[in-house]
């Protein structure tokens, strides 16, 4: 067996500090780094090195990154299975020395990681869009990302990664190439000035070199298809356009960008998102990946005369990843897949249903499946550090999903890297410092998932004791606070939420109509079907209660009760130790405040959910007393919320780091509005007031329900299509006889556009029109059951921010009128509206059947409500009680 030896002789200086010489000059920078780290520990511990020698060697066998340490006769041998193994062996031996404070007499230890890729990511992105640009478009510049050029910060970050044995760092950006490479054929595509370009080259080289030393692959992520702004302007095209077919010019530009990038940075991997800027789940994805991206990488390798393939990670986001992989594996070997573990949240350790099946399918392809803990939309911004929940999740990743890699997002404030949302006088806190426990817990379990719970409690208690200068018993109490609070946000979102996506900020609370009529807000059903244990939504629970049907699994009242207990336990545990803290007191106090925030949030949700369950009885009983009983519960929830607002008023800058119009729940958050609890207090107060007022009006028998609904005002636009006047009996398709049975009053008399059913099945719908004033186009999407990914394209997919961040570019993401049309033999229809300015435009809709129901004046407000046509009987609408 081939063994390569590097002898490290420890030469003693008079003060017993060790000095290391490497005799083999060929030794890699990674080995050198390991040896330096070990040597630094020996020096720091002032160990007597006279008689002890250490030999590092490589034996290319066994598991990747594994190592063995043997000590006998005053000699320690560290054998790595590869360069990373040597590095990790050195670090493990240094840890051992730190524990015992002397060289061991005899010692033997072997280890290797379970997950092959253990990565963290950083968004080279912002909470807002840059002027004149759209989602994900952020050139690398010092003005936008000062931290990107801060070498000290990079070293701190990379050091923390290697301490956690992480081996991959993902940089997320829409189109990074035009900041990093220049192309002979497209010199005008570069989007940064020369000085910045040089800085980018320098910092990118620095980062990749420093990462490599620490055993870390840098992997550059990019979305498709996005071109640079100057390239787009030059060719008079858009930078990104979901409905645009692949065109040779863009393919050539992208292929050359990738080739140039691979040639320049051969040690950087690529992570590919075949979306959101291309039609998801279609043939284009396969063509783009196999005919543009992979050839681009191969061109780069050819230019280098290299055959070793850099890793390419394919995201299973907005694409049919299994199909893309099957087509690509014959062409490229070093492929990985990646998919979101719990959407953009943390909810449940053992996902179920079609989402779990997708992961399992990917895992069975034979390549490595990486589990992505994506943006933590339900954890932002409070501290989260439940080792227990995290350990269970990693076990679930292996056992349920078949995953063998971790891709970890920052715990909070992803869009605001490197800072956390804490408001601290005079400075911003760094995420890597504040959220150390988040990173160390995930990486610990990514290295090895199944560890004895009792031993884990001791391990984390010691870590916390040393962090805050307290006894191990008090460390245990802090751990309890973390673990109790760590149950709250996952349980709340999975039982009451609208979506697992960052469209919702859980910690800001939810409107009552969102709790009692989630469908109206575009319920993302996978949250309940896959990312939660079996259980019931509030609506189902109330219905079963009325009908005396047996409840199954986790119920709303159960969670409402449990979260309160978790909140109380967290606060009690943390307060027990508060006077005995001797280190990092300020940070400790911030943890205390966070525990109170969790408690207030849990109390608020709990009372509000109880109110919801109570007032839903009214649907069945029509008894005003059922509403009145809910009032004190709702009052309590508002008071709890005020407590939360008071706790956060001076301690947090915001709840959610994404501050664009993509945020919808609880309130639309465009231009950084509704990002703080203090802004939500009046909303919840008004909600309560309205509810009380409606109860009073009901009692006085005034007609509160009958809000008069009028038709919307039709606007005539120029277009080349046959109009269909909307009414009962109207036929909307030229080639079928489906007739409208019922429709919402707003739609009556509007001129819809006659479309061909069979044509929509084959291709996307495009409607060219001219308007001399702003218009809103009403588009009807059929309600269908959503699976994890689907190749069933009968019905067009409604705009969905979870998989397409530009799904709101025309204001179309939100459902305006739900269940607005009933057509015999077809699912109910939800209405979305697309806004256009005066001028000539093309309305582009995805492939699949949908309806274009009319053009209305752009200034008209389209009511947001549920028309309940073809709705289930249990869904009698009582939203009007709150609005
Ligand atoms: C959604 C989300 C984005 C981003 C994206 C992705 O569109 O709204 O913020 O996270 O998913 O890339 O997964």
From TrEMBL:
Gene3D superfamilies from the UniProt entry: Chitobiase/beta-hexosaminidase domain 2-like (3.30.379.10)
Q: Which UniProt keywords apply?
A: Hydrolase
Gene Ontology biological process terms in this record:
carbohydrate metabolic process
Concerning InterPro entries, the annotation shows: Hex-like_dom2
Q: Quote the protein name from its UniProt record.
A: Beta-hexosaminidase bacterial type N-terminal domain-containing protein
Q: What is the lineage of its organism?
A: Bacteria, Pseudomonadati, Bacteroidota, Chitinophagia, Chitinophagales
Q: What is the native source organism of this protein?
A: Lacibacter luteus
What one GO molecular function would you report for this record? hydrolase activity
């Amino acid at each position: 067996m081939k063994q390569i030896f590097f002898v490290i002789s420890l030469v003693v200086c008079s003060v017993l500090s060790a000095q290391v010489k490497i005799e083999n000059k060929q030794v890699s920078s990674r080995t050198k780094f390991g040896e330096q780290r070990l040597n630094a520990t020996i020096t720091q511990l002032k160990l007597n090195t006279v008689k002890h020698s250490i030999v590092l060697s490589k034996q290319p066998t066994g598991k990747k990154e594994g190592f063995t340490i043997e000590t006998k006769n005053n000699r320690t041998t560290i054998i790595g299975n590869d360069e990373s193994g040597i590095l990790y062996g050195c670090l493990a031996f240094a840890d051992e020395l730190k524990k015992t404070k002397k060289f061991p007499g005899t010692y033997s230890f072997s280890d290797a990681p379970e997950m092959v890729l253990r990565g963290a990511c950083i968004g080279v992105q912002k909470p807002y869009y840059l002027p004149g640009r759209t989602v994900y478009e952020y050139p690398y510049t010092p003005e936008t990302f000062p931290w990107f050029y801060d070498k000290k910060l990079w070293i701190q970050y990379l050091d923390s990664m290697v301490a956690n044995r992480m081996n991959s760092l993902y940089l997320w950006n829409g189109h990074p190439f035009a900041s990093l490479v220049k192309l002979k054929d497209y010199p005008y595509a570069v989007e940064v000035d020369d000085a910045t370009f040089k800085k980018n080259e320098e910092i990118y080289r620095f980062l990749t070199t420093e990462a490599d030393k620490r055993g870390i692959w840098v992997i550059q992520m990019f979305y498709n298809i996005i071109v640079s702004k100057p390239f787009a302007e030059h060719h008079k095209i858009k930078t990104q356009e979901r409905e645009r077919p692949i065109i040779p010019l863009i393919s050539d530009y992208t292929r050359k960008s990738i080739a140039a990038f691979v040639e320049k940075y051969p040690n950087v991997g690529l992570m590919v998102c075949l979306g959101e800027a291309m039609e998801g789940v279609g043939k284009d994805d396969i063509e783009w990946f196999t005919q543009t991206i992979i050839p681009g990488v191969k061109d780069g390798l050819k230019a280098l005369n290299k055959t070793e393939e850099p890793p390419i990670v394919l995201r299973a986001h907005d694409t049919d990843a299994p199909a893309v992989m099957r087509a690509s594996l014959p062409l490229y070997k070093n492929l990985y897949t990646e998919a979101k573990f719990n959407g953009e949240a943390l909810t449940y350790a053992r996902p179920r249903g079609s989402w779990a099946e997708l992961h399992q399918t990917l895992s069975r392809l034979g390549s490595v499946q990486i589990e992505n803990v994506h943006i933590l939309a339900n954890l932002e911004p409070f501290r989260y550090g439940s080792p227990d929940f995290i350990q269970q999740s990693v076990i679930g990743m292996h056992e349920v999903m078949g995953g063998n890699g971790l891709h970890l997002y920052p715990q909070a404030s992803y869009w605001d890297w490197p800072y956390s949302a804490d408001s601290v006088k005079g400075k911003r806190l760094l995420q890597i410092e504040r959220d150390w426990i988040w990173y160390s817990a995930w990486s610990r379990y990514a290295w090895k998932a199944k560890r004895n719970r009792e031993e884990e409690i001791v391990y984390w208690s010691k870590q916390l004791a040393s962090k805050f200068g307290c006894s191990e018993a008090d460390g245990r109490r802090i751990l309890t606070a973390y673990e109790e609070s760590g149950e709250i946000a996952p349980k709340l979102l999975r039982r009451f939420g609208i979506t697992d996506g960052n469209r919702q900020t859980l910690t800001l609370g939810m409107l009552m109509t969102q709790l009692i009529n989630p469908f109206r807000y575009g319920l993302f059903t996978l949250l309940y079907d896959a990312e939660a244990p079996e259980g019931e939504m509030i609506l189902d629970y109330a219905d079963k209660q009325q009908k005396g049907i047996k409840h199954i699994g986790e119920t709303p009242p159960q969670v409402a009760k449990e979260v309160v207990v978790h909140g109380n336990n967290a606060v009690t545990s943390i307060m027990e130790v508060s006077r005995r803290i001797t280190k990092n007191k300020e940070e400790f106090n911030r943890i205390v405040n966070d525990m109170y925030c969790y408690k207030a949030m849990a109390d608020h949700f709990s009372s509000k959910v109880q109110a919801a369950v109570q007032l839903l009885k009214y649907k069945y009983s029509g008894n005003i007393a059922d509403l009145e009983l809910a009032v004190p519960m709702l009052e309590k929830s508002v008071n709890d919320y005020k407590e939360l607002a008071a706790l956060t008023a001076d301690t947090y800058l915001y709840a959610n780091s994404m501050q664009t119009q993509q945020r919808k729940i609880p309130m639309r958050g465009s231009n950084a509005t509704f990002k703080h609890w203090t802004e939500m207090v009046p909303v919840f107060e008004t909600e309560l007031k309205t509810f009380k007022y409606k109860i009073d009006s009901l009692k006085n028998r005034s007609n509160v329900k009958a809000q008069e609904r009028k038709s919307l005002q039709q606007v005539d636009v120029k277009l080349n299509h046959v109009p269909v006047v909307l009414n009962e009996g109207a036929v909307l398709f030229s080639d079928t006889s489906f007739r409208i049975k019922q429709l919402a009053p707003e739609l009556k008399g509007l001129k819809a556009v006659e479309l061909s059913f069979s044509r929509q099945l084959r291709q996307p719908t495009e409607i060219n029109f001219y308007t001399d004033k702003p218009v809103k186009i009403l588009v009807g999407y059929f309600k269908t059951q959503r699976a994890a990914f689907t190749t069933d394209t009968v019905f067009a997919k409604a705009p969905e921010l979870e998989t397409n961040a530009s799904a709101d570019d025309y204001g179309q993401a939100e459902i305006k009128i739900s269940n607005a049309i009933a057509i015999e033999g077809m699912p109910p229809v939800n209405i979305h509206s697309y806004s256009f300015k005066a001028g000539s435009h093309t309305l582009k809709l995805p492939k699949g059947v949908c309806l274009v129901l009319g053009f209305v004046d752009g200034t008209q407000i389209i009511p947001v409500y549920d028309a309940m046509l073809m709705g289930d009987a249990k869904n009698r609408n009582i939203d009007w009680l709150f609005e």
